[in-house]
UniProtKB/TrEMBL annotation:
GO biological process terms held by the UniProt record: intracellular potassium ion homeostasis; intracellular sodium ion homeostasis; potassium ion import across plasma membrane; proton transmembrane transport; sodium ion export across plasma membrane
Protein name (record): Ca2+-transporting ATPase
NCBIfam families reported in the protein's UniProt record: ATPase_P-type (TIGR01494)
Domain annotation Cation-transporting P-type ATPase N-terminal: ranges: 1-75
SMART domains for the chain: Cation_ATPase_N
Keyword Membrane: yes
Source lineage: Bacteria, Bacillati, Bacillota, Clostridia, Lachnospirales
Length: 902
């Protein structure tokens, strides 16, 4: 409806002031009345659904059938135990999933976009969720449209509306366009719609609809929530899980068949085989990965990293090349103009107030125009309490302010009537102004590009033809500043006297040819103090740092050298050199280049491609709208949270909320730790389950009594598979240990580097000690009677149900406790348990203590003793059993094998 209303009508309808926007109070009222500007999220699962999902497993069905069968046979305690275990498993599963869901939702909120809104005559940046109908919003290239807007001003404004229209070519917009009659979103040239992305230009618009009233809100119900993407590890685990399930079930069937052949109690063996299958099938593996990833992701927020795609956490640990842009990531992005080149003279203005006693700059011919030009040809905003915009421009405005120019007044005096916005591929921008002395255009940008467009120079207050020698002097001045790590921006102007036809220039298309060169501004942007250490740490961790910048090669090298990224010019390559190479040539040299300068976003895609072609796992940072393809092409696309655009953010896998290079190091460290933890949890689960199967299998094969009852297996499964495995998954890791070695290979499997050994060795060890425990009593009896320890003799002894119950209690206790000891050792297979910090992993401490307690009460509390068919144990028996159960930890100390990353 607003598309066929004029701007004035729209403003009147929405009761807003087109010049100053809504007042803060009015906005608050409207927010209170209409609620936040967020799309309803229907991806949330209800508790009931989660419970149902937990129970909707074939093996759980089998277990429930087994419970019903026990009930039918009046084995009430067995049935109860099964039901309790199933219920508790479901509860634990739901709690864990709920936690994971909450963590992910919190992340979604963190990653939500902001909007530049005009309220009470002042611009401020607010969360897009706080926008209300009637608000005036400014959007520029790279922004995501925060609500439906009726445009009131547009300049070269194009929007990617593929989300709504399916049209992949960006749609041009025009605030002055008027439609007639109802039209689809694609026809509304004077409107911009929520969640679509600005590809170029800038615009102002009145918010016409928020949240579910927007075009996207209306179809949000139709759009299916995107299913959670599985990580490569999850996929591999699901396959492994399937394979192991088949193996486990087959083994259990074989076990049952053998037992039947041995004329054992069929029902009991059936129950045992089913329980063993349930315990041994690692159906929880992918779930553990999801939970660990989700929890770790919320931990990462604390180190300023927002993970947007879960699978990237896994890849992070394998990254071996980090491509970083310079400005703001490696450097502080707190620029300050320290040198100006004006009227053929280089002047140092660092530490001086250009308006104060040292008026050296102001006295130079053209200084006024120079300051004015930089100030007017900028989109940044400095007000009393806010600094919004690009730091390069903020530095230039500050320089002009130092020379006594007020931004608001100057802008009012020279209203902008046209512009060609900045694009990093063009490396310049132009604005057109209607000033008191006629129309004037200012162009600012990189010196080399701008010089090509200048035919005149402003010298001694006059416009003169630009001579070759002057060109040479300018380039020399630029190189001098660049080699001192200064970022150099040039300024040129063009007067449109007399001949200027305003009528034909409504949107203002200024020229960028035949310009008059005015001067250069050189600004420092010191490296972040933590960058130096981060680059060194990366080196130690086998990760190469590559600088990719749009800036001049000399400036780039001057910053890269002290940081240790590059030593000589031979390690640098410029965009034009890159253009001269084909992909094969580039791939052959790429591993020896550490600085790419004067590159455009298109170059970044080629660089990523070449690095990947050499087998590297590449993380790449980006901030601009044009960086999106490179971010997508990289194994891990990293967007800047502070100064990055929404487009870059939505194309990325991960966002740095502090734009800081050193944060990438923390993220990679976390990525390695998380992978290591998941591996630990999985190997622990597999080895424990393997131990259970072997214990049972060996006993049955040897024709001995069954060492474990169905209820025992389920109980052990309950106490070891949930908390200890999760505790391993969220273990705190030694960063030194993680970052002092090269990254793992992306193709490396879980069983590599000792993984298979751990699974088999500890599985066999646990089975061995459990069987020893099972045979301890018969051995004692036979020994005291002076009889030989034969299978037949043992079997005869085990015919006595009381003795069998004691032996089973031994095996049960040792099997349960040994897995707890095993979990402690698995925290770090390379470190002695005496050197591990106990309280660094409180969940592990809690789960082990709780596990011991639970294992203790099944043999001590009379009704549990009865339910589990166990016997009460004496003190000395506990001593023997704890000694046996501690063997995995003893083995851990003896082995201290090295696992991940070695
Ligand atoms: P990095 O890629 O390391 O962040 P960068 O900021 O120099 O470096 P771009 O933003 O692509 O990369 O800028 C490229 C060049 O364009 C800069 O070196 C500078 O010469 C010029 N430039 C940067 N910002 C502006 C601007 N706001 N207006 C005009 N020219 C600019």
């Amino acid at each position: 409806m607003y598309e066929d209303q004029t701007i004035r009508q729209t403003a009147a309808h929405l009761k807003t002031d087109i010049k100053n926007g809504l007042t803060e109070e009015e906005a608050r009222e409207r927010l209170k009345k209409n609620g936040p500007n967020v799309l309803a999220d229907d991806s949330r699962k209800s508790v009931l659904t989660m419970v149902f999902e937990q129970l909707n497993e074939p093996l759980i069905y089998v277990l429930l059938v087994a419970a019903a069968a026990s009930l039918f046979l009046k084995e009430v305690s067995d049935a109860l135990i099964i039901i309790i275990v199933v219920a508790m498993n479901a509860v634990i599963g739901v709690i864990q999933e709920g936690k994971a869901q909450k963590a992910l939702e919190a992340l979604k909120r963190l990653a939500s976009p902001h909007a530049l809104v005009l309220r009470g005559g002042h611009f401020s940046k607010i969360p897009a969720s706080e926008l209300v109908a009637g608000d005036l919003v400014k959007v520029t290239a790279g922004d995501q449209i925060p609500a439906d807007l009726r445009l009131v001003f547009t300049s070269h404004f194009k929007v990617d509306e593929s989300l709504l229209t399916g049209e992949s070519v960006p749609a041009g917009k025009d605030a002055l366009f008027l439609t007639e009659g109802p039209k689809g979103p694609g026809d509304c040239k004077n409107m911009a719609f929520m969640s679509t992305g600005v590809t170029s230009g800038s615009a102002m618009g009145i918010v016409t609809a928020c949240a579910m009233d927007t075009q996207i809100g209306k179809i949000a119900g139709l759009l299916k929530a995107t299913p959670q993407e599985s990580t490569p590890l999850q996929k591999r685990l699901a396959d492994l899980g399937k394979f192991l399930s088949i193996v486990a079930v087959t083994l259990c069937v074989v076990l049952f068949v053998i037992a039947v052949g041995q004329r054992r109690n069929i029902l009991e063996m059936l129950m045992t085989a089913i329980s063993l299958a349930v315990a041994a099938v690692p159906e929880g593996l992918p779930a553990i990965v999801t939970i660990v990833l989700a929890l770790s992701v919320s931990r990462m927020v604390k180190v300023n990293v927002i993970i947007r795609r879960l699978p990237c956490v896994e890849t992070l640990g394998a990254v071996n090349v980090v491509c970083s842009d310079k400005t703001g990531t490696l450097t502080q992005n707190q620029m300050m103009v320290t040198k100006v080149y004006l009227n053929g003279k280089l002047t140092d203005i660092s530490g001086t107030d250009t308006s104060g006693a040292d008026c050296s700059v102001r006295d130079i011919a053209g200084a006024d125009l120079f300051m004015k030009g930089f100030l007017l040809c900028s989109d940044a905003l400095i007000s009393e309490n806010e600094r919004i915009g690009d730091p390069t421009e903020l530095a230039l405005i500050e320089m002009a302010a130092g020379a006594g120019l007020e931004q608001e007044k100057t802008q009012a005096c020279y209203p902008r009537i046209g512009e060609i916005p900045f694009e990093s591929s063009r490396k310049m921008m132009t604005t057109l102004h209607d000033g008191p002395d006629g129309v004037i255009g200012f162009t600012k940008g990189s010196c080399d590009i701008l010089l090509e467009r200048c035919t005149y120079i402003y010298m001694d207050g006059q416009i003169q033809p630009l001579r070759k020698s002057q060109r040479g002097d300018i380039l020399k001045a630029m190189e001098g500043m660049s080699s001192r790590a200064l970022r150099v921006l040039a300024l040129a102007f063009c007067r449109y006297e007399g001949s200027f036809d305003r009528k034909n220039l409504p949107a203002g298309i200024p020229k960028e040819e035949g310009l008059t060169f005015l001067g250069l501004a050189g600004m420092i942007d010191p490296p972040r103090p933590e960058t130096h250490q981060a680059v060194r740490d990366f080196m130690k961790a086998g990760v190469r740092t590559v600088m990719i910048t749009g800036d001049h090669l000399d400036t780039a090298l001057a910053i890269a050298r002290p940081l240790g990224i590059a030593r000589a010019r031979s390690e640098c390559m410029s965009g034009s050199q890159l253009d001269a190479m084909d992909d094969d040539q580039l791939a052959s040299v790429i591993d020896s280049v550490s600085v790419f300068a004067r590159v455009s976003p298109e170059h970044k895609v080629r660089i990523v491609g070449a690095l990947k072609a050499q087998g590297n796992i590449v993380a790449m940072t980006g901030d601009g709208v044009n960086d999106a393809p490179a971010l997508k092409a990289a194994d891990i696309g990293i967007a800047m949270g502070k100064n990055g655009t929404d487009t870059a953010r939505s194309a990325s896998d991960m966002v740095l909320t502090d734009d800081n290079f050193a944060t990438i190091k923390k993220a990679i460290g976390e990525g390695r730790a998380i992978y290591g933890n998941i591996k630990k949890a999985i190997l622990f689960l597999l080895s424990s389950n393997f131990g259970e199967i072997i214990t049972m299998f060996a006993a049955v094969l040897l024709g001995l009594g069954t060492p474990l009852k169905a209820s025992h297996i389920l109980w052990i499964n309950l106490i070891t598979d949930s908390l200890p495995a999760l505790a391993l998954g969220i273990d705190k890791n030694d960063q030194h240990q993680l970052m002092d070695r090269p990254p793992r290979k992306a193709s490396e499997g879980l069983f590599a580097k000792g993984g298979l050994f751990v699974t088999l060795f500890y599985g066999c060890l646990i089975a061995f000690i459990s069987l020893c425990a099972f045979l301890t009593v018969p051995y004692g009896i036979l020994k005291s009677q002076g009889m030989a320890m034969t299978l037949q003799a043992i079997e005869n002894l085990l015919q006595d149900p009381e003795l069998l119950a004691r032996c089973q209690t031994y095996a049960f206790t040792v099997l349960g406790m040994s897995q707890l000891f095993h979990a402690i050792g698995m925290r770090n297979v390379e470190r002695s348990v005496f050197k591990m910090k106990l309280f660094e992993n409180p969940l592990m401490t809690i789960s082990v203590v709780l596990g011991f307690f639970l294992q203790f009460i099944v043999t001590e509390i009379p009704w549990l003793v009865q339910a589990f068919g166990t016997v009460r144990l004496m003190g000395y028996e506990w001593g023997i059993l704890i000694f046996l159960a501690a063997m995995p930890l003893v083995a851990h100390e003896l082995l201290l094998i090295r696992l991940p990353g070695k």
